[in-house]
Specification:
- The complex is a heterodimer.
- Helix content of chain A is 23%, strand content 36%.
- By secondary structure, chain A is an alpha+beta fold.
- Chain A has a 15-stranded mixed sheet that branches.
- Chain A contains 6 helices and 17 strands.
- The termini of chain A are close together.
- Chain A has 2 domains: 152 residues, 2-Layer Sandwich (Alpha-Beta Plaits), CATH 3.30.70; 139 residues, Alpha-Beta Plaits (2-Layer Sandwich), CATH 3.30.70.
- By secondary structure, chain B is mainly beta.
- Chain B has a domain of 163 residues.
- In chain B, β3 and β4 form a beta hairpin.
- Chain B is elongated.
- The chains are: A alpha+beta, B mainly beta.
Chain lengths: 298, 270
């Protein structure tokens, strides 16, 4: 398959089941809601070393937030319910509770309930106040700038992590420009996050390593500087490869985001140095969800 | 199906215990069986059809017409369904109700919504003393649900209240929120003396500056983030509480009752 001079490989992205939750952070203005959201979703690019994958889903209009203030919707993905709950609690406690004027609300009403403000309330040292409003419990925790308001729980749902595609370009600036265009389009899709810095990862990994302590290492088949040293997957003209990783609530959400992203890359086309789109997989043995690039783009 | 309607034939001489006439008791009964039920009135047992003419068949939707203040225990332990009362209700309206909805077009007597657990109770007129309170000797009053009174309420509203909302469009008598354990009482009108007497936790939300006892301490003026959410939850009500113009988030906060646990609060609109 070739779109606008860009070859779409007959391969698939391999994704695996995860647990996910969503939280809504509000603040006095969008600037402070975003600062808090960025802190909460920081150091959460890959479950390999961060414990979770997290990102900003979108900016919310005041009319969309529970308290009528500007807000930001964030999502956290983890391999299991326990690790998700732990990550949510520590991140909420250290990044949102501490952030000036912030408030924290559930972003998923159904699903298994996991603590959001439920345990943070103990920071109130006995001065915390519970309010049950419209069937939901909120905690009012006295803090130095006034009160931190947090909904007691949010919902945990089954989700999918590890959707991806690779952009193979003739130069590094061209690969980056294409990925930036893709991310701009993909951020318009709800229910997905692209957890890596700016949504783009330049250090895609393979499973395993020659070093026993490591369970992942550089994806040498796609490293352009190793073309003459390893069993490469790159043709001579490819000088740079970048990857976009997608976590989403459903298979459809990820497929839609992949389509939007790949289409944006292909719109730049071969004239802008984009030669191929490929995807990362482990031979289909690890993850039950397979996103075939050519099926998505058909 | 039309609503099951009980129309009072005449004002009873003695008070009448209406507790058998609730939705979950009547849903399996034929009209003749309902007519044969007995209601305690003083030391007499009266058949339902001696007191009421009965129409309709939908037991999940009961209407009591021409009601007077001698009909006690209307909607006692109601567990689903809707009861509409045209006229006044006697004492213990919605006593221990578990779910469902009760609406009274007139006034309600003593102990309305006493020990209510869940559901919605609306009184278009005034309500008597001990609204949403506990029975004498009991430690837990209202445990959940919402009470809306469009008129005034008597003394001791929310006595021993544990959870839920009491919304009062008019004035509240003395000892409003006394011995509250938690929950919210909102009063648009004036409040009487001894507001929040011995309250442990909970919120008294006021539109007018109260007369507070010395055991309430001023915590200053604040903008509280939970208030917009609280007011938003009232939007579906047929009440002035649903109007956006009455909402506020800036309050003077008083903590008390310091002679008790002192974790309660009086929030007066600024």
């Amino acid at each position: 398959m070739i779109i606008n001079g860009v070859t779409i490989d007959a391969t698939f992205a391999e994704a695996f089941p995860m647990k996910a939750t969503r939280a809504i952070i509000t603040a006095q203005n969008e600037k402070w809601a975003m600062i808090s959201a960025q802190a909460m979703t920081g150091f959460a690019t890959s479950v390999i070393a961060c414990g979770c994958e997290s990102g900003i889903e979108r900016v919310l209009d005041p009319s969309e937030t529970p308290d009528g203030r500007p807000g930001v919707s964030i999502m956290i993905f983890a391999m299991g319910g326990k690790s998700l709950a732990k990550q949510l609690e520590t991140r909420a406690g250290q990044c949102v509770l501490t952030s000036p004027t912030s408030a924290l609300f559930a972003g998923i009403d159904g699903g298994i309930r996991v603590p959001l403000g439920k345990n943070l309330r103990y920071f109130g040292d006995g001065f915390q106040v519970s309010k049950q409003i419209g069937g939901k419990r909120y905690w009012r925790i006295p803090v130095m700038d006034g009160e931190f308001l947090a909904e007691a729980t949010t919902g945990q749902v089954d989700a999918i992590g590890g959707g991806n595609f690779l952009v193979l370009a003739e130069s590094q600036p061209q690969a980056l420009a294409a990925c930036e265009a893709a991310i701009e389009e993909m951020r318009k899709i709800p229910n997905v996050i692209m957890p890596f810095p700016g949504g783009i990862v330049r250090s895609g990994s393979k499973v395993g390593s020659k070093y026993k302590a490591l369970n992942a290492s550089t994806n040498d088949a796609f490293c352009p500087t190793l073309k003459g040293m390893t069993k490469t997957d790159l043709s001579p003209e490819i000088e740079s490869v970048m990857e976009i990783v997608i976590d989403g609530l459903t298979k459809e959400d990820i497929a839609k985001a992949m389509w939007m992203g790949i289409q944006a890359v292909c719109d730049l086309g071969a004239d802008n140095g984009i030669k191929r789109i490929s995807a990362g997989n482990y031979g289909g043995k690890l993850g039950p969800f397979h996103f075939h690039l050519q099926e998505i783009m058909a | 199906m039309s609503a099951l309607t009980f129309t009072l034939k005449h004002r009873p001489d003695q008070r009448v215990d209406m507790s058998p006439l609730v939705c979950h008791h009547l849903k399996e009964l034929a009209l003749a069986d309902i007519a044969a039920l007995t209601l305690q009135s003083g030391n007499l047992k009266l058949r339902v059809d001696e007191l009421f003419t009965i129409d309709g068949s939908d037991a999940q939707n009961i209407i009591i017409k021409n009601s007077v203040d001698k009909l006690d225990f209307i909607g006692k332990e109601l567990d689903g369904g809707c009861i509409s009362v045209t006229g006044d209700a006697g004492a213990y309206l919605g006593f221990g109700m578990k779910s469902g909805e009760i609406k009274v077009s007139g006034n309600a007597g003593l102990y309305a919504a006493c020990e209510m657990k869940k559901g919605y109770l609306e009184v278009s007129g005034n309500a008597g003393d001990f609204l949403g309170a506990a029975l004498p000797g009991n430690k837990m009053g209202m445990k959940g649900g919402t009470i809306l009174v469009k008129g005034n309420v008597g003394e001791r509203a929310g006595d021993h209240m544990r959870r839920g909302n009491i919304l009062i469009e008019g004035n509240a008598g003395d000892y409003c929120g006394s011995r509250m354990t938690a929950g919210t009482i909102a009063v648009m009108g004036q409040t009487g003396r001894y507001l929040g007497y011995a309250m442990r936790r909970g919120t008294l939300l006021l539109w007018n500056q109260p007369q507070l006892s010395a055991s309430f301490n001023d915590c200053g003026a604040h903008t509280l983030a939970f208030l917009p959410i609280l007011f938003a939850s009232f939007k579906s009500l047929n009440s002035r509480f649903a109007e956006a113009s009455i909402a506020f988030d800036r309050v003077q906060r008083y903590a008390g009752d310091m002679s008790e646990m002192g974790r309660g609060e009086v929030l007066a609109k600024l």
